[in-house]
Amino acid sequence: MSLAIDTNKQETEVLWNFWKRYLQNTRQAFTENPVSTARFEVFMKSQSGSESDTQSHQSCYSEASSDTEMSVSGISVDGRSAVSSESLHSIPQKGRRGRVSNLMSMPRTLAMCYLALLWVREAITLTDLLRMVAEGHIPYLHLHETFPAEMRMFGKDVQIFRVLFFPSYAFIKKEALVLAKIMKLPSFPTISQDCLFHPVPLTVRYLLEANLPDALHVWVQKVITGAGMDSDSFLTFDPTDKKPHLLSYDVQAVAVIIVAMKLLFKLDDHVEWKLSHDAAKKKNNKVFSLERWFNIVQPVLEQARLKEEQEEARRQWNFANPFITNLKRKSLVLKKRRVTDHLQQRFQKFADPAPEQSTSTTNSHTSFRFSWGEEEGSDGPSMFNQNLDCTVKAKAVNGLANQRYWHPELRICPENKCVSHFSKFEPSLPRMFVWVLDLFSFILGVLQSDVYEEVLNVERRFLKKNYRLDSRLTSSHLKKKKGPIL
Q1: In a 3-state reduction of DSSP, which class is residue 165?
Q2: Cα–Cα distance between 482 and 465 in angstroms, integer?
Q3: What is the pLDDT of residues 377-420, one digit of tens each?
Q4: Which of 139, 177, 218, 386 counts the highest number of beta carbons within 10 A?
Q5: C-alpha 242: how far from its chain's center?
Q6: Is 74 left (phi over 0), alpha (psi -120 to 50) or beta?
């Protein structure tokens, strides 16, 4: 099956091609040699003789055709398996331990959607996708409720759509790599600077989001160029590589911004405040002050975090209609649901008699968590047009007032043994640096450790290419190697 897909085509067409390729490579469909399956007892009951059963068990079964009555799961009314000849070819072979491999799951569906977005170079990052899922703009939590009335889940099908938590960023990224390997995808379209996955335009978005000045983007671009992160070969995902690596484009973009901030302000709990005091002496509102920026953003961040926690506490994980996995347990399941609903209504009267409807399901989706400016409804004044006169000095070496760059240990862990060391080093890190990590991790909806590890990756590339550096040191003079870098 050819994957020569024009990137200008609709995402749905690309996703459909991915889905067919997945079914074919896993031998579930579109193949003359489908996977073998265990024997099932095929039992079909005529429609005329089962009308009463259908009405009594309408929450469990559906009419599959005009000639036979079957459940979506292939379980007949009397409990025996009822599958058609076509469905026998769609069940993958079980592994040695009896587990079915390469089946599609809810998280893996998101991973396939992300691969399709990346293929067409759509301006939707993985964090955007996960946020739309969490806010309910993409059906995921109660996906089965969007199905037609004749598609009622029963039996093992229940487990596929039973979502008890949202998948993490790292897990979806891992599943995307697995899917790309299963589907044997070719190299993806090139990530050039006209694509919003490129770090140059993507960092502009996050500078706006974090209310940082546009003048900082000049130094962000210097870091991108100095680290060699603007090359097409580095940015483009190629599953055919011996060790394919899928970049975290959004996390990488904020990591570059943090490295640029460390170059300018150091973020060691001393230099940034000294520079802020120098800016205050000038009494010029157009000069960027990190202290003023912190005082504006910090309360807005705390308010947004509190609002998110309240919405999460009000999230309904239970299904409106309980799934019935076994006819013998039907009465017990329905009774438990009635008791649960009754207790929830009683407690709700004490806690919040008239809770406000979550804004995530009522408002349209926006890519930005914060809104800065003078307009009504903004979170605070914008600092995007301020300059860096107190940070960048024309007569200083490299133009920087800060001439030392601190960094954690940059040693690389052995392959297959790498774990996050953020929890180990976090107590000893400067508080301002940790707060900046917290800000960007909230904006992206990822863990602080994810942003921290990506900052280390950027520092390894940037410092190794441009400065004489010992990875065991925690502070380096900004003494360049030969050649203009900054």
Answers
A1: coil
A2: 10
A3: 899 999 999 998 877 664 444 556 566 788 888 877 776 667 77
A4: 386
A5: 25
A6: left
